């Protein structure tokens, strides 16, 4: 390459043009490499999912999910920007007795287990269980063991076009409750147990908070009608439509007939720090409507 700063033969005009062309090509290559690094590779960035219309979607909060004979109700839709997931309770994949509620000790089916989802053409796959996550590392404090009850199921790619994240009847969720649920606050839920024999008018429920317990990990709630077997895993939102809880257990004492809801914000944060980085709640496309009361209220 000619030395354009002196100390050698005088460059010709053609030499200068060739040198400039090589410099421009080198700079272009550097710019392309930098852009590739910033984009994380040659593939374009993934876009957010396009949801099916709420009126025609067959997969949404409130559909029934079946794991090894156990039935539960889906709570919320989640995404990581690429894949789409549906949530239920971790205990829905449990293999022990119904009284085995401590997730740090209870047995569970493994990740990779197929989960049947009503409205889907093929099973989803269990990709996260708070029970398995808590058992894979240092034992958390008792409140977390007792009340961290969230399972995440990946929806098959062929079924993503059938998904809408809106909660039937109520609409929303509008966000995540991170401020707590004081006693006396109004709550809204949607259970779908087959024990209601398909009477969908009994699925939406409204009720009152009895306060938060377990270091913020659980919310005690009375609803009309109470949550029953098959409602496990279902969603509960606050008076602003924010996702607040996941139905975990039915209390026998001291408040018989009340339900315990795992705190969604804490359970989601735990999932994000235990293998589900980037997981986020999908907001409903339908406006939250707390004035649309359910049957019998």
Task: Explain what this protein looks like in three dimensions.
The termini are far apart. This protein is an alpha+beta fold. A hairpin with a 2-residue loop joins strand 1 and strand 2. The protein has helices at 13-39, 130-135, 142-147, 264-272, and strands at 64-67, 70-73, 77-79, 84-88, 114-117, 124-129, 151-154, 186-190, 204-213, 218-224, 235-237, 243-250, 259-263, 280-281. Helix content is 16%, strand content 24%. Residues 1-13 and 15-46 have low confidence and may be disordered. Strands 2-1-5-6-7-4-3-14 form an eight-stranded antiparallel sheet. The protein has a six-stranded antiparallel β-barrel with strand order 8-9-10-13-12-11. The longest helix is centred in the first third of the chain and has 27 residues, at 13-39.
How would the blueprint of this fold be written?
Blueprint lengths: L12 H27 L24 E4 L2 E4 L3 E3 L4 E5 L25 E4 L6 E6 H6 L6 H6 L3 E4 L31 E5 L13 E10 L4 E7 L10 E3 L5 E8 L8 E5 H9 L7 E2 L16
Antiparallel strand pairs: 1-2, 1-5, 3-4, 3-14, 4-7, 5-6, 6-7, 8-9, 8-11, 9-10, 10-13, 11-12, 12-13
């Amino acid at each position: 390459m000619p030395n354009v700063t002196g100390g050698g033969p005088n460059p010709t005009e053609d030499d200068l043009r060739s040198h400039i062309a090589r410099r421009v090509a080198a700079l272009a290559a550097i710019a392309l490499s930098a852009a590739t690094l910033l984009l994380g590779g040659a593939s374009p960035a993934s876009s957010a999912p396009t949801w099916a219309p709420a009126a025609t979607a067959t997969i949404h909060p409130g559909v029934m999910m079946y794991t090894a004979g156990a039935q539960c109700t889906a709570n919320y839709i989640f995404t990581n920007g690429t894949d789409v997931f549906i949530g239920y309770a971790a205990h829905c994949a449990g293999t022990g007795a119904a009284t085995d509620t401590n997730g740090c000790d209870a047995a569970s089916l493994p990740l990779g287990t197929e989960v049947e989802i009503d409205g889907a053409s093929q099973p989803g796959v269990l990709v996260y269980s708070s029970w398995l996550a808590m058992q894979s590392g240092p034992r958390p404090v008792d409140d977390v063991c007792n009340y961290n009850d969230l399972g995440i199921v990946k929806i098959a790619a062929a079924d993503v076009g059938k998904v809408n994240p809106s909660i039937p009847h109520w609409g929303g969720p509008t966000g995540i409750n991170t401020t707590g649920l004081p006693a006396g606050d109004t709550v809204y839920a949607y259970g779908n147990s087959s024990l209601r024999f398909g009477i969908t008018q009994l699925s939406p429920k409204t009720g009152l908070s009895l306060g938060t317990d377990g270091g913020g990990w659980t919310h005690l709630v009375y609803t009309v009608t109470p949550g029953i077997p098959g409602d496990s895993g279902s969603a509960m939102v606050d008076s602003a439509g924010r996702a607040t809880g996941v139905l975990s257990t039915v209390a026998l004492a001291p408040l018989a007939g009340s339900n315990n809801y795992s705190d969604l914000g804490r359970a989601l944060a735990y999932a994000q720090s235990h293998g589900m980085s980037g997981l986020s709640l999908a907001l409903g496309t339908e406006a939250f409507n707390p004035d649309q009361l359910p049957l019998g209220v």
